[in-house]
TrEMBL record:
GO terms for molecular function: catalytic activity. This is Haloalkane dehalogenase. Residues 1-93 are annotated as: Disordered. Pfam families: Abhydrolase_1. Residues 135-242 form the AB hydrolase-1 domain. It comes from the Eukaryota. InterPro entries: AB_hydrolase_1, AB_hydrolase_fold, Carboxylesterase_BioH, Epox_hydrolase-like. Residues 1-29 have a biased composition (Low complexity). GO terms for cellular component: chloroplast.
Amino acid sequence: MASSLLSLGASSFPSTPTSNSNSNSKPTKLGIPRRRRRRDFLALSSTSSSSERAAEEEDQNKDDKPRFNPFGFVTDNPSSRTAIQLPESPAEDGNVGQMLYRIEDKGREYGSYVRSGKLRWFVRETGSANSRRGTILFLHGAPTQSFSYREVMSQMSSSGYHCFAPDWIGFGFSDKPQPGYGFNYTEDEFHSALEKLLEVLNITSPFILVVQGFLVGSYGLTWALKNSEKVSKLVILNSPMTVSSPLPGLFKKLRIPLFGEFTCQNAIEAERFIEGGSPYVLKNEKADVYRLPYLSSGAPGFALLEAAKKANFGDILGRISSGFSSSSWDKPILLVWGLSDKYLPLSEAEALQKGNPDAVQINQIEGAGHMPQEDWPEKVVEALRKFL
């Protein structure tokens, strides 16, 4: 039995090559050529390396997948992701101090500070007092600033107009007094402050008024109704015009106790509002300017909060709707309307035109949203030139 097992074991291995064999491999004790063992080792090593590479690629893919981010609620805005998300080394980029340092000098094109009484306004100006075609005053809405008019007013001054675009008190780079200390953010106070500013700017003869947007934009229209003798022509860009005008969620949230205080301190609320009403995403260099005041301090947010709380939107829109009807207004009105506005449909403009067909004309801009002066300034300029 033992001899048969030994015989079987011996026959299981290749025979030892003779001196006449062509193989250069030296046999081992087991009878396996060394070269074959080396090839087997290399194949095994190659298989092992492939497995390791596959494992590394799998780990890398896992690293590329989005992970939980506790600050995700402020990073869902595409234009804000690079500025708000926290990097691995906060000192290099991403924290508020670094953001302010990077953007603090942006967005002041054509602008300077003008003191009117106790208030300091930031006013953009293009052209000169000797401009042959008259003066244009551009008024922005909430929660934005006069920066949105920079391209339009630059091109209009090239056409011979003297242009002004102030930041309303509480917005942009203008003063933001604490409520109850010199300014309470009511409609009457906004009107009074605007009249004093016009005196300082020496705007005396009837001028062309351009208005856009909600809240303080609407205050620009109610000011025009009270001072129609100072306005030669009126241009309205995407603004609420009827009592049934939908109110964006931002202003609804601002009027909710406690929740409003939280909402107003969101540093990216302005750019989020702009992008929410537009088919486009703001480029980072533009978004930087709109967020800058809200990053600098809490004052702009509280100013917006106070103005929203004290605004009687129903009453304001009722006066606008009736005030610009044919029985009350006979000055030429141009409605420049971005058709991709996600806040205000074209029916707003059509309702105003229906109430005063002789004075009102509409210029529709395809591809522009709630702020056509930001989305497509060239087409706004074209519409203004034709109208004026």
